[in-house]
Amino acid sequence: MFSNTLKKITIWVFFILIILAVWAVIIAISGENPFSAFGYILEGSLGDTGYFLSTLNKMVPIMLTALAVAIPSWAGIWNIGGEGQLLLGGFGAALIGFSINLGSSFLNILFALIVSALFGLVWALWPGYLKIKLNVDEVVTTLMGNYIASYFVLFLINYPFRDHSSPMAQTKYIDSSFQIPYMFRGSQFSYTFFIALGVVFIFYFIIRKFKFGYEIRMTGSNPDFSKMSGIKTKKIKLVSMLMGGAVAGLAGGLLVLGMNHRMMQSFSPGFGFTGLLVCLLAFNNPILIVFISFIFAMLQTGSVNLELFSNVPAEISGLLQAVMVLFVSAFKIISMRKGGK
Amino acid sequence: MFDEITTLYTTTIRMATPILLASLGGALTYYAGIVNVAMEGLMLISAFFSVVFSFMTGNAFLGILGGMAASVIFSLIYTFFVSGLKANNFAIGFALNILVSSLTIFLTRVMFVGQNVFNSPKIVAIPSLDIHTGIYFIDNYILNFSVLTYVAIFLVFLFSFIIYKTTYGLHLRVCGEKPKALVAGGIKVGYVQLIASILCGCLCGLAGSQLSLYNVRMFSRDMTGGRGFVALAVILIARGKPKYMILISFLFGFFDSLSLKLQNQAIPPQFALMLPYVMSVVVMLVFYLKDKKKLETV
Q1: What's the DSSP call for residue A184?
Q2: From CA A201, how far away is CA A78, in angstroms rounded?
């Protein structure tokens, strides 16, 4: 028993070393010493309190968009639409933030976050509904949804909701009573991080401890058995899709209330797709999602530092992340086969 | 007025060509039992390397070959995971798409520091057919499109023949529907899928070349803009039948063309840009609704 665990750990340490070696090769090809490059990445992501806090900040949208893929994925349905849901959620929060006031800051923030989740939910509703009613492929519809949402939000911030005092296409700032306060001076780190972390753990418990979570998992892993045992699989699939959309929308809301304080052009550098990679790498496991979001956030903040001190562009972070997903998928399959024998 | 219709028509053909090429390639893996979600990445990697090779050699044909080679390599990686390792095709497909998206922009920025576009007068474009008869209709409506447009139309017939009339085509069709029957007949599923994926790589390669060496003459970040998934929608709607795919590709090409035209009009450009994506969902919906009615009557 013990030796078996030890063996597993050895194998995974070996895998991690292989991934690091592949990363080193990629960096070397782009003309930089891998060791100094890793140094710049580590320094730029964990080097001091400021860097560390901005890494944690980066985790917020990544964790939640990963969860937005994971929840529907448990029920056996794909949500590739996290990017569009995040953008609409962000706009929803901004819209509430500059147009109404409920009197108390707590109520304001709560209401804006609920609206952002609802905006995301609506954007998951139609692909989910088309899937369960007509079996229209949800991968295509959610992906097309990203483009539609992204152009629609661009229209909203360019025309009806544009702040005309600004040369850029963006909305007005939200009222200060909507802002989720920063926790430290000189850093954008705010309570949003703990809200996001809390949401991940809530879903962790729902999926593990509740009857509803059990039904979601059964729908995904064994649809025929679920149907026979009376689980309404279509309803479960739709509800899990809606939850995914709501979580991605919430990510957008948290970005607006906790960081940007307005909706703007190039609001997301592709958080939805980073989240998708994280979810693939974490095999839908919420705890692993937190862990891998941290690594990916490190790569993203660290590679900005890398670009400052070398000729390697910051885009390398996406490359390293995707390569990691491919290698880990291969390792997982190979190690499972070995384990089976 | 008449000129405008001509422009709309020629743009339709131009925009439909990459969708048709990619959907033909994806149809082969679709028959072989793999719903190919990596086409977006295959087109993008080819679009990039077509430009690179055309830039380096000054020859559009070598550009196309370079793009195809890159696309075939990535198609083989995809097949290695999906067919060889039995990994989830969606997971690997999306990982590859994101890999290609980062890789191409990374390489662009390594070569041209700080830029998101690979543009140079040294890039040689794919030639048009360039035959002039002097008759307006023939010159503008039949001749003088990209060489690859004619290749694509030829391939529709070739593929119909391969899929329905050859032994490989038979294996291919059995492969997706009843893989066990194939194994019982002594044919390896992996082998059939491998051939399909190499051909799919070639075709998505051609599609990418058409995008970056004909429709425009440069590479820009994520320039495929979801066309790999439009091609997937074409395959799903047509159920992989080449003669339907040609019609639906031209329909989507028309929406692309209309979108380009409307961008210069009085409406906000975002709605024009949104149009092809909205329409691809609408068209899918219409066909699935029609199918549902058919199922109910049966």
Answers
A1: S
A2: 21
Q: Where are the beta strands (DSSP E) in chain B?
A: 117-118, 219-220
Which 3 state secondary structure label does DSSP give A325?
A: helix
CA dihedral angle for residue A16, residue A22, residue A27, residue A29, rounded to 10 degrees: 170
Q: Which fold has domain B2-128+135-297?
A: ABC transporter involved in vitamin B12 uptake, BtuC (1.10.3470)
List chain B domain ranges. 2-128+135-297
Task: State the alpha helices, DSSP H only, in A188-232.
Answer: 192-209, 211-221, 223-228
User: Cβ B292–A134 below 8 Å, yes or no?
Assistant: yes
Smallest CA–CA distance from B106 into chain A, residue? A315
ipTM of the complex: 0.92
Tell me which residue of B253, B25, B8 sits closest to B152, measured CA to CA. Answer: B25
Task: For A90-147, write each residue's pLDDT tens digit.
Answer: 999 999 999 999 989 999 999 999 999 999 999 999 999 999 999 899 999 999 999 9
Residue in B with minimal Cα distance to A146: B277
8 Å CB contact between A89 and A249: yes
C-beta separation of B124 from B54 below 8 A: yes
Radius of gyration of chain A (CA): 21
User: What is the CATH code for A49-310?
Assistant: 1.10.3470
Q: Write out pLDDT tens, residues A259-277.
A: 999 999 989 999 999 999 9
CA atoms of B247 and B285, how far apart (whole Å)? 17
Tell me whether A11 touches chain B (CB under 8 Å).
Answer: no
Angle between helices B60-79 and B39-57 (to 10 degrees): 150
Q: Which of A136, A41, A147, A37 is nearest to B276 (CA)?
A: A147
Query: Are A159 and B268 inside 8 Å of each other by CB?
Result: yes
Mark yes or no for CB contact B233/A140 under 8 Å: yes
| pLDDT of res. A2 | 64
- On the CB side of A117, CA atoms within 13 Å amount to 17
Where are the alpha helices (H) located in B166-268, listed in sequence order?
A: 167-177, 179-184, 189-210, 227-238, 242-262
Q: What residues are paired with A170 via a beta bridge? A: A264
